[in-house]
Design a protein that fits this description.
The chain has 5 helices and 15 strands. By secondary structure, the protein is of the alpha/beta class. The protein has one domain (58-228): Putative cyclase (Glucose Oxidase, domain 1), CATH 3.50.30. The model has no long low-confidence stretch (mean pLDDT 94).
Amino acid sequence: MILIDLSRSIYHKMAGFSTHPQVIITPFGTHDEVRDADGYKFSSATLSLAMGDHAGTHVDAPRHFDASPGAMSIDEMPLETFFTEAVCLDLSHKPLKSDVSIEDLEQAEKAAGVAIKPKDTVLLHMDFHRRCYGTPAYMTDFPGLTKESATWLGNKRIGMFGVEAISPGRPGRINFEVHHVCRDLGFTHMEGLANLDKLVGKGRFRFIGFPLKIKGGTGSPIRAVAWLDG
């Protein structure tokens, strides 16, 4: 069994949407503080976390992009959504600030030698994390899906897809259209993934990325992991 970590670390004031809560991490207890319980001494080192439900590597719940009263929150989503078979499509040739077309996805699926199946998790490697993480371009220059290419994925009845960027579509109207495709076709997506290059050419594998059970949450940070045989 080979496990590949696909998650970003969560740290103080990490990059994120300006419209989302900023991640704030502060010491609550330190190693200098020692507690004593019946002669047994142990450290009080703890951290205080304040962050939104879309911090770091995370998954969107339908409630994030579906305004209808019955849209599921993250705690209502089936656990089976987050433990699935998966494939990774190589789109690393796409230029920054470009749209990913249906033709791009079809060619990537063929090159991977895999067939996307219903309920699959589809990971889209665009080499964006390596190219832009830690720079201002990380917030704006990512390639992204369009309404049409997101619909192509949805018509394959996938469970969800994932990207390295902070959103699945290019900034502006296109991104909202991609979210609405997820709403209309009943699937979701992850943002902020990393290490997708390690999955290129690996065929089919298992994906694990369970969310926190946030009551009423519109999304959740996840520890995304690829499980390969080996």
